[in-house]
Write a structure and sequence with these properties.
CATH topology of the largest domain: Jelly Rolls
Largest sheet: 9 strands, antiparallel
CATH architecture of the largest domain: Sandwich
Distance between the termini: 40 Å
Helix content: 40-55%
Shape: globular
Number of helices: 10
Number of strands: 9
Order of helices and strands: EEEEEEEEHEHHHHHHHHH
Strand content: 15-25%
Length: about 280
């Protein structure tokens, strides 16, 4: 009999709504997805296998895992009987820029982490310190100090700045990039609408296949994957504002609440209810 899976989603309001996730999974597998910000964590038990940047990564217990913004990846247990457990934080770009400024670093260029999996005992200890400080309800000042020390270790030891991550809607200087930017704008403006690849392609004078190939080349994801990410992002905002899951699903263009829940689990490993509950913790006061 497979052991029970569990997850705990929370946020730290005074750290610019930093999201955290602690979970243990056995059968659950994440489909291909990406994050708007960074995903940083430690494997606490078992072993995870995931594909990222055309490379299969294996992260055993004690490993640090970092995924850069926009990097498409998946994830599952290397051994379903043993599963994998982890603690993750998801600092978004504005939080990283603020931290860079506070650390006296250039906040005009975002750090890039070339290695997705590595061992660093001191950094691992810092992540566990942050997790324990949060659990213990330590004062905000202490939690902020632990977080800054953690980011300093992460950036000083493992980051590169030579190639800042380009935003997916970066100013285009070629005809192809302009077409991708135009489609991206349409997806952002009409994220809840039932768009078709054929319709998007027609708007920019391409065949559906040409658009799909070009879009994936420029952004690393398909138009469908980007639209799904946008739906989830807007749904999270709606849930945070107290909208019911059923109304959120309708507002954000999901087929129904069940479909929205399925997509949340696929992308985040949590349900819409977990997101709503995470915004009603003592850290939200």
């Amino acid at each position: 009999m497979t052991p029970k899976e569990w997850k705990t989603y929370t946020r730290v309001r005074h750290l610019d709504n930093l999201e955290t996730l602690r979970a243990v999974f056995y059968d659950h597998a994440f489909g291909r997805h990406y994050h708007d910000g960074y995903a940083v964590g430690i494997i606490l038990k078992g072993c995870e296998t995931y594909d990222c940047n055309k490379k299969t990564n294996v992260a055993p217990k004690g490993s640090i895992v970092i995924v850069n913004p926009g990097e498409v990846h998946n994830g599952c247990a290397s051994n379903r009987k043993l599963g994998w457990g982890y603690f993750m934080i998801y600092p978004h770009l504005s939080l990283i820029r603020t931290a860079l400024n506070q650390l006296g670093l250039d906040d005009n260029r975002l750090p890039v982490f070339p290695e997705s999996v590595f061992k660093d005992p001191e950094f691992a200890h810092g992540l566990i310190r942050f997790m324990d400080a949060f659990d213990a309800g330590d004062p905000e000042m202490k939690l902020e100090a632990v977080f800054l020390e953690l980011l300093h270790l992460m950036i000083s030891r493992h980051a590169e700045f030579a190639k800042p991550i380009p935003p997916m809607t970066a100013a285009a200087d070629t005809r192809e990039k302009r077409k991708v930017a135009q489609v991206t704008d349409m997806l952002q403006e009409q994220f809840a609408e039932p768009l078709s690849l054929e319709g998007l392609a027609k708007e920019v004078g391409l065949s559906p296949w040409s658009l799909l190939r070009l879009f994936k080349k420029q952004t690393g994801v398909s138009p469908y994957l980007l639209q799904t990410r946008l739906k989830i992002s807007h749904a999270k905002d709606a849930l945070r504002q107290g909208l019911s899951p059923a109304d959120t699903a309708a507002l954000c263009g999901f087929t129904d609440q069940s479909h929205m829940t399925k997509q949340f689990r696929r992308w985040m490993g949590v349900t819409p209810g977990d997101i709503a509950a995470g915004y009603a913790t003592r850290r939200d006061t």
